[in-house]
TrEMBL record:
Signal peptide, first to last residue: none
TM annotation in the entry: 241-263
A molecular-function term among this protein's GO annotations: DNA-binding transcription factor activity
Assigned protein family: Belongs to the LysR transcriptional regulatory family.
PANTHER family: HTH-TYPE TRANSCRIPTIONAL REGULATOR YBHD
Organism lineage: Bacteria, Pseudomonadati, Verrucomicrobiota, Opitutia, Opitutales
GO cellular component: cytosol
Protein name: LysR family transcriptional regulator
Alphabetized Pfam families for the sequence: HTH_1 (PF00126), LysR_substrate (PF03466)
Domain of life per record: Bacteria
Domain HTH lysR-type: 10-67
Length: 305
C-alpha cells in the first residue's frame, strides 16, 4: 500500500468540493452550490492541501487559479470521481432493481436523421434500458468520457484520441452539395469545365459547419482541394439548420446525404452531383474498460450504421 494512503485520509467529498471550486473559480459560488459556508469550504481546501502536502490553489481577491499540481489533481480527480459514481451505479444495476441506464454523447455535427439508427433498434430490443442523451461538441464528449460522465460517444473521428479511450466501431458518412432549385438548375446547365464550376462556386453564399469542429476543418480542406476559394457568410453548428436555410434560398452547402432523409418534402432543395465526394468517418468511442457491461455491448451492437 502506498505510504500516502496509509498516513492521509483520502476523502472523495473533499475532491468533489475541490472540483466545484475549480469549475466555478470561486470559493463563494462553490460553497453556495455545495450548501456549506465559505469558511467551511476554505477549511476543506486547506485540509486537502495539507493531506497531499502541496499547494493546489492560488487565491486572489477576484478569483481562484490552479497551480500545476492543482491542474494535475483536477484532471485525475475527474476520472476518479467518475469511476466512483459509475461503480455505484453499476452496483445498483447489478444487485438491485435499479433500471440500467446508458449515458450517450452525440456530436452536434451529427444530424437528427442519424439518431433513429442509434436508438431505434435498442429501444425495441432492450426496452428495460434507459438512455440519457446529450448533444455536445466532440471535444466536450471526449472530456466527459475521460471523466466517466458519459458511457458512449458518437462523433466525427478526432485527430487524436486520448489513451484512456478507444474506438469500437467506424462508419462512413457521405456528403453532397445542396442548393435551391434555381441555383442547382444554373449549375446543371453550365459547361462541365473546372473553371466554370469554380467560378460558380466562388459566387455563392456558403453556409458551412463551424471551422472549429473536426468535420468543419476537414470539410474546408476538401473545398480548398477543389480549388475553390470560399468564404462562408455563415458558420453554424447544425447541419439541420443549414439544410433549412439552404431550402429558403439563403445559400449553398455540403451536408450528409443521410441528413436529407428528413427533408424529402422540401421542393426547393436539390442535390448537385460532383465528380468527387467528401466523406467523413464517424466513430463510437468508449473508455478503456476491463470488461464492458452487457447492456453497453448490446447497445453498440444494435446501432444501425
Amino acid at each position: 500500500m502506498h505510504e500516502l494512503i496509509k498516513t492521509a485520509a483520502f476523502d472523495l467529498y473533499e475532491l468533489h468540493l475541490f472540483q466545484l471550486v475549480v469549475k466555478h473559480r470561486s470559493f463563494t459560488k462553490a460553497s453556495e452550490i455545495a450548501g456549506i459556508t465559505q469558511s467551511a469550504m476554505t477549511r476543506q481546501m486547506q485540509g486537502l492541501e495539507t493531506s497531499v502536502g502541496l499547494d493546489l490553489l492560488e487565491r486572489t481577491t477576484r478569483s481562484v487559479r490552479l497551480t500545476s499540481a492543482g491542474e494535475f489533481l483536477h484532471r485525475e480527480a475527474s476520472r476518479l470521481l467518475g469511476d466512483a459514481e459509475q461503480a455505484l451505479q453499476r452496483l445498483h444495476e447489478q444487485f438491485s432493481d435499479s433500471k440500467k441506464e446508458i449515458r450517450v454523447g452525440v456530436s452536434r455535427s451529427l444530424c437528427l436523421a442519424h439518431l433513429p439508427g442509434f436508438f431505434h433498434a435498442n429501444i425495441r430490443h432492450t426496452p428495460l434500458v434507459g438512455y440519457r442523451i446529450s448533444s455536445e461538441p466532440s471535444a466536450d464528449i471526449l472530456t466527459a468520457l475521460e471523466a466517466n460522465e458519459l458511457d458512449i460517444g458518437v462523433l466525427s473521428r478526432p485527430k487524436k484520441l486520448p489513451g484512456t479511450l478507444r474506438i469500437t466501431h467506424r462508419f462512413e458518412d457521405t456528403f453532397t452539395l445542396i442548393a435551391s432549385d434555381d441555383l442547382a438548375g444554373e449549375f446543371a446547365q453550365m459547361p462541365k469545365s473546372k473553371e466554370r464550376r469554380t467560378a460558380w462556386a466562388e459566387r455563392q453564399n456558403w453556409l458551412l459547419l463551424d471551422k472549429q469542429t473536426n468535420t468543419g476543418q476537414r470539410l474546408n480542406t476538401f473545398i480548398a482541394r477543389q480549388g475553390w476559394n470560399v468564404n462562408p457568410i455563415m458558420q453554424l453548428d447544425s447541419f439541420d439548420m443549414i439544410i433549412n436555410l439552404v431550402s429558403l434560398g439563403m445559400g449553398v452547402s455540403f451536408v450528409p446525404i443521410r441528413a436529407l432523409a428528413l427533408y424529402s418534402r422540401k421542393k426547393n432543395l436539390k442535390r448537385i452531383k460532383l465528380p468527387v465526394r467528401f466523406i467523413r468517418e464517424l466513430v463510437v468511442v468508449i473508455r478503456q474498460h476491463r470488461k464492458m457491461p452487457d447492456h453497453f455491448t448490446q447497445f453498440i451492437e444494435n446501432i444501425l450504421f
